[in-house]
Amino acid sequence: MLRVGVLGAGHLGKIHLRLLNESTKYELVGFYDADAINGKKVADEFGYTYFDNINKLIEAVDVVDIVTPTLSHFDCAKKAIEKGKHIFIEKPITNTYEEAAELLELEKKHQIKGQVGHVERFNPAFSAVKHQINTPMFIESHRLAEFNPRGTDVPVVLDLMIHDIDAILSVVNSEVKQINASGVSVISKSPDIANARIEFENGCVANLTASRISLKNMRKSRFFQKDAYISVDFLEKKVEVVKMKDAPEKVGDFDMVLQNAEGEKKQIYFENPEVGTNNAILDELESFADAIVNDSTPVVSLRQGTQALKVALQIIASF
Fold first, then answer.
1. What pLDDT is attached to residue 210?
2. Which among 109, 148, 154, 219 could disulfide-bond with 235, CB atoms 3.0 to 4.6 Å apart, if both were Cys?
3. Do residues 158 and 315 make contact, with C-beta atoms less than 8 angstroms apart?
4. What string of H, E and C letters represents the secondary structure of the chain?
């Protein structure tokens, strides 16, 4: 079992602590929180060992799980990496691209492994159809959330949209060509609603909308590619796959057939991939343990997390 320590005992940090404590792949050594009062409160309530010194916790573990505010990600990760510790770091990887780039250099220098917490990669709906998303040419994504003061210290792009940016980058095998975006601050001092159009070198276009001031929650992405339409509902854990193939010579009574202007006939058919049930946060944490033990590349590497941050910052810069 890998010895692990958690940095940060806020809302998400407490979830990580609970799951790591339950995991059979980790031994939870303890946690550190910059707020000593909160740290002692969490320790008293849940029984986890509280370290009042971040360096002592890092020294005591093999893996450091960083669930602190984004502004402190870089400092925490740098301390851990320079001690030769593997790091799991919540999204976004860092506050600036320059910080992320330096972490990549440190990762290489100290020969450690790192993974970024883009949890939607482990969403069972996305996992069920990702292998079918081949060369999409148009993608539409909506990530809408009811207002919550937690997370408003960063623009909605870094808070919410970055999930979809990472998912899209994982299926579009092409460099970004151009980005156009707009954002509006309604309640916070940073944008609360944003829309971005990302054009890729291969011709694919992705249209992303994110809001944290909506009346209802929605997390849905639609992928359009040759002869197929794939819809992923990240919130409801549902998928819809609609495909087309050449129509048979003899059309059945219940077959859906369309004919284009050139006279070509296509049959429409539906697939219902099985969507499993899982705890996505536990899965991402345990997949990182597997990557360390098996010396394999993490599902969401630090480089991929850096690419998602780079695009997110380009979107913010184009407001």
1. 98
2. 219
3. no
4. CEEEEEECCCHHHHHHHHHHHHCCCEEEEEEECCCHHHHHHHHHHHCCCEECCHHHHHHCCCEEEECCCHHHHHHHHHHHHHCCCEEEEECCCCCCHHHHHHHHHHHHHHCCCEEEECHHHHCHHHHHHHHHCCCCCEEEEEEECCCCCCCCCCCHHHHHHHHHHHHHHHHCCCCEEEEEEEEECCCCCCCCEEEEEEEECCCCEEEEEEECCCCCCEEEEEEEECCEEEEEECCCCEEEEEEEEECCCCCCCCCEEEECCCCCEEEEEEECCCCCCCCHHHHHHHHHHHHHHHCCCCCCEHHHHHHHHHHHHHHHHCC
- pLDDT tens digit string along 184-204? 999 888 899 999 999 999 999
Reply yes or no on whether the pLDDT at 151 is more than 70. Answer: no
The tokens for 190 are: 């940073």
124-274+312-317 shares the fold of 2-112: no
- Name all contacts of 23-27 with Cβ < 8 Å and 24+ positions apart: 23/282, 23/285, 23/286, 23/289, 25/1, 25/286, 25/289, 25/290, 26/1, 26/2, 26/63, 26/285, 26/286, 26/289, 27/1, 27/2, 27/3
Domain map of the chain by residue range?
A: 2-112, 124-274+312-317
Q: Which CATH class is domain 2-112?
A: alpha beta
Note the CATH architecture for domain 124-274+312-317: 2-Layer Sandwich (3.30)
At 223, the amino acid letter reads F
